[in-house]
Design the sequence.
């Protein structure tokens, strides 16, 4: 599982919120797909910038993740490095683009999980919400907090629920 941090959890939460509020989503667009939307939050690049970087190499996110080289100097590889520095693994990013991580899928009810599609916005939202919940629960198990600490720190909003 990802290296858990409040920054990563918050990036998932912000991405979900944007998608729910009609942020551009297009699975075939490198800057507006599953990974592209999360990359916007983690890198502060626009969907157009991400797409432009991606077009300098061939293939979709999965192909570029397979070919990823942190020392290549390609903008796309530098962007992927920022995502891994935020705590994600290459395999997790591959799974995100396909909505296929068994650890995340097992937390989604079977009836819903069986109908999920990698390129449906509602399914991406559910997958990312589920992943954020997993990360947040793990973070809380490692970092018990009091109400006073919650009010003084940047604790994910779900903690308050």
Sequence:
């Amino acid at each position: 599982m990802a290296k858990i941090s409040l920054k990563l959890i918050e990036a998932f939460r912000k991405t979900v919120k944007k998608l729910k509020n009609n942020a551009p989503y297009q699975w075939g667009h490198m800057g507006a797909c599953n990974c592209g939307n999360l990359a916007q939050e983690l890198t502060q690049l626009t969907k157009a910038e991400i797409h432009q970087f991606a077009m300098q190499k061939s293939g979709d996110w999965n192909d570029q993740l397979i070919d990823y080289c942190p020392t290549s100097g390609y903008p796309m590889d530098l962007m992927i490095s920022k995502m891994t520095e935020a705590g994600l693994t290459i395999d997790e990013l591959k799974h995100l683009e396909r909505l296929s991580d068994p650890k995340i899928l097992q937390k989604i009810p079977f009836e819903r999980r069986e109908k999920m599609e990698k390129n449906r916005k509602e399914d991406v939202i559910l997958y990312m919400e589920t992943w954020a919940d997993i990360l947040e629960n793990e973070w809380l198990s490692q970092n018990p907090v009091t109400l006073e600490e919650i009010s003084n720190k940047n604790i994910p909003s779900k903690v308050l629920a």
